[in-house]
Write a structure and sequence with these properties.
Strand content: 25-35%
CATH superfamily of the largest domain: Probable tRNA modification gtpase trme, domain 1
Structural class: alpha+beta
Number of strands: 17
Helix content: 10-25%
Number of domains: 2
Largest sheet: 6 strands, mixed
Length: about 325
Amino acid sequence: MVNTLSTKCVQYIFDRSYLGIYELQGNDSLDLLNRLSSNKVDDLTINHGDSTILTNNKGRVIDVITLFKLDSKILMFTSQNNSQEVIDWIDTYTFIEDISVVDTNSQYSLITLIGENWSECLAQKPIIEKFTCESLEINGNSCLIMRTDPTGTVGYDLLIPANYKNDIIDFLSKIKSNVKILTEYQYDYLRINEGIPRLDKEINVNFNPWEINLNYLINMTKGCYIGQEVILRLNTYEKVQKFLKRLSIKLKGPENITNIKFEDNNIGIITSVDNTNKIGLGIINKKYCETGKTYQLVNENSQSIGEAEILETELPNSIA
C-alpha cells in the first residue's frame, strides 16, 4: 500500500528524467542567476549547489531551479515541462553577460534515490551535507551523485549517461534486497505527505513564494533580484493572506475536488490530491489554517462531496 511507504526501512528508486537538465557555461552564469532569483547562489563553491526561485516582477513564482557548481560548468535542473519558460526568462535579462545555456536532456538521465543508506552503498564516503555532490562509477559508468532530499527525507539524485539508464536502474534495483522502484503515484504520495509543492500544482504564477511555503529559499539580505521588492514587502507588512496546507481528505465518492468551503464561503483551493484521495495539499485563507479544523469540500458545481481536515504542516525543505 502507498500509505505504508517507509524511507527508513526501504530504499527507493524513481526516474526523474522528466526534469530539465542543462549546463550553464560562461563566467557570469552564477552572477546572472543570483540577480534573477531569490536565494544567494553567486558564492557556490565547487561540488556544492542550492535551489532558488525565479520570480516575475510581481513576485510570483516562475519556477524553482536547482544549481550545482562543477569544475568548469554549472548544472541547472528545471521543473517538468518548464524548461523553455526558464530559458526564455534568463535570455530576457541576458545582455552582455558571458553565459550560454546548453541543453543536455538527450545526454543525461536523472535517477532519484530515496532512503538513508544509498550514500553508503554507492559513494566512497557518506554524503552527509545537503546540496553537495561527488563523481562516482556505477556498473562501469561515470555518474554524479547529488544530495538533494527531493521528498523531504534523505535522498539523492544520480546524473547518469542516458544510454545506460535502464542498465543502471537494473543494477541499482538488485544492489540490496530492500530496494523498490517507485511508481509516479507513490512518489507523489511522498511529496504530498511532506507538504512539498510541485510545478503546475502549487508552483505557478498564481502564487508568491510565501503562499506555497518556499520561505527557506528566500535570502532576506542578498542584493536585488526580479520581484524582490514585492516579496519583501509582503513579509514586512504581513500581507500574505493564504498558505499551503496538508489535508486529510474524506470523499463521499470519486469526484474532482476544486474548493474548500466554510459556511458557504470559499476559503481555499485544492492543488494536489494523491491517487487514493486520502491526502492532499491546498492553499487556504490564513484565517482558517488552524491545525485540526475540518471544512467542506465542493466540486466545480459547488456541491458538497466530502470534507478536509487541516493537518500540521511544517515548512518543506525540498522541491519535488
